[in-house]
Write a structure and sequence with these properties.
Layout: E1 8-14, E2 18-25, E3 31-38, H1 47-62, E4 69-76, H2 78-85, E5 91-96, H3 100-106, E6 115-117, E7 120-121, E8 124-129, H4 135-144, E9 149-153, H5 162-173, E10 177-180, H6 181-184, H7 190-220, E11 226-230, E12 236-238, H8 239-244, H9 255-263, E13 270-275, E14 280-286, E15 289-290, E16 292-297, E17 300-307, E18 309-312, E19 318-322, E20 327-334, H10 335-338, E21 355-359, E22 369-373, E23 379-381, H11 384-391, H12 404-418, H13 422-447, E24 454-458, H14 462-473, E25 476-479, H15 486-493, E26 496-503, H16 509-525, E27 534-540, E28 545-552, H17 561-564, H18 567-578, E29 586-590, E30 595-601, E31 610-616, E32 622-627, E33 629-635, H19 639-650, E34 652-654, E35 657-659, E36 662-667, E37 670-673, H20 680-691, E38 699-705
Parallel strand pairs: 1-4, 4-11, 5-8, 5-9, 9-10, 13-24, 24-25
Antiparallel strand pairs: 1-2, 2-3, 6-7, 11-12, 13-14, 14-15, 14-18, 16-17, 19-20, 21-22, 22-23, 26-28, 27-28, 29-30, 30-31, 31-32, 33-38, 34-35, 36-37, 36-38
Helix pairs in contact: 1-7, 2-7, 4-5, 9-15, 11-12, 11-13, 11-14, 12-13, 13-14, 19-20
């Protein structure tokens, strides 16, 4: 196989048992190849050795040259595992300030009571820094006390970081790893900010060492492409940024899979269900964006941005529980925990004379989990995957597919015990299994007001859950292509991401634009193409919070719609998304990169009809859902004035004051999301920032949605 230079993106996912690597065409996103190697936890180079081993095997299989690779990203559970296991470095807290500031920072010594794992408390040392001139002495004191990494803490460092900077400078001059609370977040709240920084410091030595090994190994292999690491909020960041804020990689287990659903599967509104052998992680995608919140670690709140993921203890290997009369539950134990192979993947010949037995997967577990024992005494687990294959709901091209006749033979002993047919038994198992999954799905659909959501299943056990769940709920569903490697696929395709948060009382337009610029500059500095960077800005006046989230690809990917899309297919996809006939769908606006389509609907008999809008990109992906929108095309020179007039027309007034409409702009290759801004002047200022580099005659599409 021959490639053009820079035509391949590589994604690697470091799992607990295996490290998977994939190569993806940088332009079409086509999977070119995949490999699997054991994860090298016990190697002297740690997991870095497995990453290099997977990369070299992938290159050998495909004949990849070093300059064929334009991008390489890996996801790892290393940070998460270190925190869960309490395997962290000794952290030295340098408390900066006098008077009340000194009192406040001294109280942070209580972090030493934080239990990360049973019997494993966070090892903390403390030293006071009365003024910047004593920073070096404080660092020396902490190192003598056993600190391996230093955290600079000052109560109001987000406003004035000089004191914290003096500490980190002194530490780095001495060759000591260091971090400061203002480098982690711009939010107030000393305890939460310091806790986040201390946890970041605790995993820093190990993560920096891994980053150094990965980088040196990849560079020795001749690859000069951008090296990225998956973040917990679904994006990627550079290795240099990971060395500074390794905590951002924590809780990134499901993040790479969601990135795969967004990019490879083009999911724009729905839920991604990543099903492994034991559990299913459920994440939300709304209007083409993942949902992110501040995570808890060790039972404590932090400022770590991570996906809003709900985990349910149902997986492809979940075992069936039987009371002697009925199926009582599926899971939480799995075949992997019990150490038994799946019955549906056994040879057909073993089922003659097989009988139903009950087992206790682990000592102390209830002995009501069913298994099948063959005539020669071999035991097999009767799993959710077996039931799904017996019922025939597993697509033939799925990773979890087994011969239905073998799966039915495996289910037969349980069906006989229940006095039911094999089909009825398999259906009863699936119905019981998806109950807790459906409860979470229903809750998320309602909580985030998802509009005609699609369920996308990923992971090796996807087909054991998603098809039946889709049929039960009536939602559109599909199994992701190459579901078993959706995580490394997501790593290969993920966008560079940065989140900047600041607390600013009564923020001015300049404050908001500065926050936006900081986020944009951060992703560009990590290799994102400036032309395609999208920045979503949210201003919360009640909390005085400004949040800017920037995302961008390392190469501009937006395709020309006219050259790539079938109009009939697009119209059908839009109609399905809205819930109307394709004949009712009309094109409302168009640019070289996007098409805007809409249809008029009534949700209720007496409700006023509204135009429901969908924005489709050059890949045929519905990038934006809006209900009850106004769409207008103008040129860049007149867009600010026209937007101001439309915003005035669509501003709603109530007890809480004026609420401007939610606004999106289609500007060149970008969808500028201004829906998080509630103030008219701030809205116009941000729109001006998006438009300032555009040619006067360039078309701009304005989309406005009235606030409910």
């Amino acid at each position: 196989m021959t490639f053009q230079p820079g035509a391949v993106r590589v994604g690697i996912d470091v799992g607990g048992t295996f490290t998977d690597a994939v190569a993806v065409d940088a332009h079409t996103f086509e999977l070119l190849g995949q490999v699997k190697v054991p994860t090298t936890h016990d190697h002297s180079d740690g997991v870095a050795h497995g990453i290099l081993e997977a990369l070299e095997k992938l290159r050998a299989d495909l004949g990849l040259n070093a300059d064929d690779v334009s991008f390489l990203a890996h996801g790892t559970t290393q940070a998460t595992n270190a925190l869960l296991e309490g395997d962290v470095a000794t952290v030295g807290i340098a408390g900066v300030g006098t008077g009340y500031d000194a009192f406040a920072t001294k109280r942070l010594r209580s972090f030493g009571k934080m239990e990360l794992a049973p019997g494993r408390k966070l090892p903390v040392r403390f030293a006071a820094v009365r003024n910047p001139g004593t920073a070096g002495a404080a660092v020396d004191e902490l190192v003598r006390a056993g600190a391996e990494v230093v955290v600079a803490v000052e109560p109001f460092s987000v406003d004035d970081p000089d004191g914290e900077d003096a500490v980190t400078t002194a530490a780095r001059e001495r060759g000591v790893l260091a971090t400061a609370t203002h480098e982690i977040t711009g939010l107030y709240g000393l305890t939460k900010r310091a806790r986040t920084a201390v946890l970041n410091a605790g995993i820093m030595p190990r993560m920096v060492s891994t980053a150094d090994l990965v980088e040196s190994s990849v560079r020795r292999a001749g690859i000069t492409a951008a090296l990225m690491v998956v973040r917990g909020d679904g994006g990627v960041m550079s290795l240099a940024e990971m060395r500074r804020r390794p905590l951002l990689t924590a809780l990134s287990g499901p993040a790479a899979g969601v990135a795969g659903a967004l990019m490879a599967e083009r999911l724009s509104e729905g839920l991604f269900l990543e099903t492994g052998g034991t559990s299913t992680d459920i994440s939300v995608v709304r209007r083409g964006r993942v949902l992110v919140r501040h995570a808890q670690l060790g039972g404590h709140e932090t400022y770590l941005p991570a996906l809003d993921v709900r985990t349910v203890g149902i997986g492809g290997g979940s075992l069936i529980r039987y009371s002697g009369k009925a199926i009582t539950e599926v899971g939480p134990r799995s075949a992997h925990i019990a150490g038994l192979p799946y019955a549906c993947f056994a040879p057909a010949a073993v089922w003659s004379g097989a009988k139903l037995i009950t087992v206790s997967p682990r000592p102390g577990d209830p002995a009501d989990y069913v298994a099948i024992e063959t005539a020669d005494g071999t035991r097999y687990a009767l799993t959710l995957t077996c039931a799904a294959n017996a019922l025939g709901v597993v697509p033939a091209d799925s990773y979890a597919y087994a011969n239905p006749s073998i799966a039915q033979a495996a289910i037969q002993p349980l069906a006989t015990a229940l006095g039911l047919s094999v089909e009825a038994t398999a259906r009863a198992v699936l119905r019981q299994a998806v109950k807790p999954v459906r409860a979470v799905v229903d809750q998320l659909v309602q909580e985030y007001r998802l509009d005609h959501p699609t369920l996308v299943g990923g992971g090796g056990g996807a087909a054991a859950v998603t098809p039946y769940l889709g049929a039960e709920t009536g939602h559109d569903w599909r199994i992701a292509a190459h579901a078993e490697v959706i995580s490394p696929l997501g790593a290969a395709l993920a966008l560079v991401r940065e989140s900047v948060e600041r607390i600013v009382p009564n923020p001015s337009n300049a404050d908001i634009l500065a926050t936006r610029t900081q986020a944009e500059a951060a992703v560009v500095a990590q290799g994102a193409d400036p032309a395609g960077v999208e920045v979503d800005v949210t201003v919360d006046p009640q909390r005085n919070l400004i949040r800017a989230v920037a995302t961008g690809a390392t190469e501009l990917r937006t395709k020309d719609r006219s050259a790539t899309l079938d109009a009939g297919v697009v119209r059908s996809d839009v109609a399905r998304s809205i819930g109307v006939d394709p004949a009712d769908v009309h094109e409302l606006a168009t640019t070289p990169q996007y098409g805007v389509f809409g249809a008029r609907t009534r949700r209720h008999r007496f409700a006023r009809s509204a135009v429901r809008v969908r924005v489709v990109d050059g890949e045929g992906v519905i990038r934006l859902h809006s209900n009850g929108a106004t769409v207008e095309t103008v040129d860049a020179s007149t867009a600010p004035a026209r937007l101001a007039a439309l915003a005035d027309q669509h501003t709603r007034y109530g007890d809480g004051g004026a609420r401007v409409p939610a606004v999106w702009l289609l500007v060149g290759p970008k969808i500028a999301d201004l829906s998080g801004v509630l103030d008219r002047d701030q809205l116009i200022a941000l729109a001006g920032a998006e438009l300032k580099t555009r040619a006067d005659d360039e078309p701009v599409v304005l989309i406005l949605e009235d606030r409910r």
